[in-house]
């Protein structure tokens, strides 16, 4: 049963932009916080951006000034706008939900992982 569906990944040149979408069920979207993660081979999955139901956001230092997270309650969707992409941003990107941003940072998520969406940045 699909609960989280990520989309929007693509192959882009360095300096380009992408917007990722995470479509969730209403019950998942009602959870206090949602976040975007990324993972590359041999590395631990890491939180890159998170947003609470109240609209507060947190972005990892590695992507500050380049990535922005937002949500659309009417569409039960959370977005990740990625600008000025770099080769080191190449990864599979996932979304999930948790009770707060700190728990999300430690991978304390409340739903099974989806398939993710591949982002590849060429130099």
Keywords:
123 residues; mainly beta; four-stranded antiparallel sheet
Residue fraction in strands: over 45%
The Cα radius of gyration reads: 13 Å
Spell out the helices and strands N to C.
EEEHEEEEEEHE
What's the overall geometry?
globular
Largest sheet: 6 strands, mixed
Question: Can you summarize this structure?
Answer:
The protein is mainly beta. Helix content is 7%, strand content 46%.
Describe the fold and architecture:
By secondary structure, the chain is mainly β. The protein contains 2 helices and 10 strands, in the order E-E-E-H-E-E-E-E-E-E-H-E. Strand 7 and strand 8 (77-82) form a beta hairpin.
Set down the secondary structure blueprint.
Blueprint: E1 4-7, E2 11-13, E3 18-24, H1 26-29, E4 33-39, E5 46-52, E6 57-59, E7 67-72, E8 77-82, E9 91-98, H2 101-105, E10 117-122
Parallel strand pairs: 2-10
Antiparallel strand pairs: 1-3, 3-8, 4-5, 4-9, 5-6, 7-8, 9-10
């Amino acid at each position: 049963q699909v609960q989280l569906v990520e989309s929007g990944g693509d192959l882009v040149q360095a300096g380009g932009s992408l917007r990722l979408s995470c479509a969730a069920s209403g019950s998942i979207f009602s959870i206090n916080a949602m976040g975007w993660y990324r993972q590359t081979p041999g590395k631990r999955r890491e939180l890159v951006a998170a947003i609470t139901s109240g609209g507060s956001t947190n972005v990892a230092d590695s992507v500050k000034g380049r990535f922005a997270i937002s949500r659309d309650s009417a569409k039960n969707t959370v977005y990740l706008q990625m600008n000025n992409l770099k080769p080191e941003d190449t990864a599979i990107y996932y979304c999930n939900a948790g009770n707060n941003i700190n728990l999300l940072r430690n991978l304390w998520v409340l739903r099974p992982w989806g398939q993710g969406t591949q982002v590849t940045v060429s130099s």
